[in-house]
Write a structure and sequence with these properties.
Layout: E1 14-17, E2 22-28, E3 36-42, E4 58-65, E5 68-72, E6 75-79, E7 84-87, E8 93-96, E9 103-110, H1 115-127, H2 139-146, H3 160-177
Antiparallel strand pairs: 1-2, 2-3, 3-9, 4-7, 4-9, 5-6, 5-8
Length: 181
Amino acid sequence: MTTGQIHVPKAGDVITNPVHGETVRFLEVGSDTSITRFEFTAEPQASGPPAHIHPKSYERFEVVSGAIWLKSGRNERVVEPGEQISVPPGSSHSWHNHTDEPAIVLVEMDPGFTCAQFLDEWYELVRAGRLNSKGDLGFLHSAVLFYPHVDLMAVPGIPLRLQRTLMRSLSWLARRRDPDP
C-alpha cells in the first residue's frame, strides 16, 4: 500500500509480520470463486487477529503443530494438532497462540476473495512502521486497509452497509491527510 501499487501474492510467497510474530506461506491463491490456502505460523504467545467476521467466506483451520485458542461465536476451545475447525460466513471469531511453542496452522478461505492481497497489504503497513503505540494499525490506516476488502473481512456487530460507508469516508479522509497511508 505504501508503494501505491497493488501486489497480489502467489503460491509459494512468504510474508511476515515481525511485530505480532506471524509468518504466512501461501499455498494456493484464489479469487471471488476459488479457495485461498496458506500456512500460518504463529510464534509463542502471538496475539492473533482481533474478533472479526468473513461476511461471505468460510474459514477453515487445521492445526499442524502446536495449539491455538479459538473463539467462534460463543464457543471457546483449544485446537490441537490434527484437529480441524470450520467457521461459517458471518460468525465472529478470533484466535491466538496461547502456548510457549510455535503453532503451525493450515488456513483455508472459501471463497478466497482478496485474502492474499489483504494480508500482504496489512503486513506491509506493519513493516513500514504504521502502528500505533499499542502495536495496532491506527484508525485511519485501518480504514484504508479494510475498505477494499469489506466483503472478505469486517467488524462483528456493525451492519456491512454502514461499514462500507464509514470505511469509504474514513479512507478518503486518511488519503487527504497522508497521500501515502
